[in-house]
Design brief:
Glutathione S-transferase Yfyf (Class Pi), Chain A, domain 2, four-stranded mixed sheet, Glutaredoxin, alpha+beta, 4 strands, binds glutathione, 205 residues
Amino acid sequence: MLKVWGRNNSSNVQKVMWCVGELGIAHERVEAGRQFGVVDEPRYRAMNPNGKIPTIEDDGAILWESNAICRHLARKHGRLMPPALADQARVDMWMDWQQTELGAAVGPVFIGLVRTDPDKRNMAAIDAAKMSSIAAMKVLDAHLADHLYVVGNTFSVADIPMGVMAFRYKALVPESPAYANLDRWYAAIGERPAFRAHVSDIPLT
Ligand SMILES: N[C@@H](CCC(=O)N[C@@H](CS)C(=O)NCC(=O)O)C(=O)O
């Protein structure tokens, strides 16, 4: 049975769990990270030398990196991955963009506002990260003007990391301009039971 290590309030674990939920995969999730520890144990480091979450074991394959895990599960279970090679490349492109552009912008806002005590916050850095987040979301909003989902007009694995980030953005960047295309896409995402169970029903902590 698929085994997933990682606490359920981690954005990167949420991607994997949402994907698992969409695909209906039988699984066991093991608490790890932050207050649960585990990630520094030699046995865990032997699986994931980064000491980060998530890590999975799937039929003997040990994998880490949340986006790679999601793509693996989509391919293995034959859903959420578009068939055309060019669309698969677009899935890779947007999932990389989530990590390097959107996630890199939203991450410091989350750390600053959720994980840092009010008297210790660097508000200038948080405001700068908010501006970067707004700029990144403008790119996604423009793309969604003529695509129903991140790749084409069908929900795919590429929507998953983006949806996790969008949930944090909506909660933490109320200064965002109105992004009509983003809002239309996000409303569709919000109707998915697996998104609610693994992302939006879990408090930001
Ligand atoms: N690029 C990695 C990043 C993994 C990562 O940074 N995970 C964070 C949680 S979101 C972590 O392990 N934090 C330390 C901890 O929870 O103990 C991925 O996408 O899986």
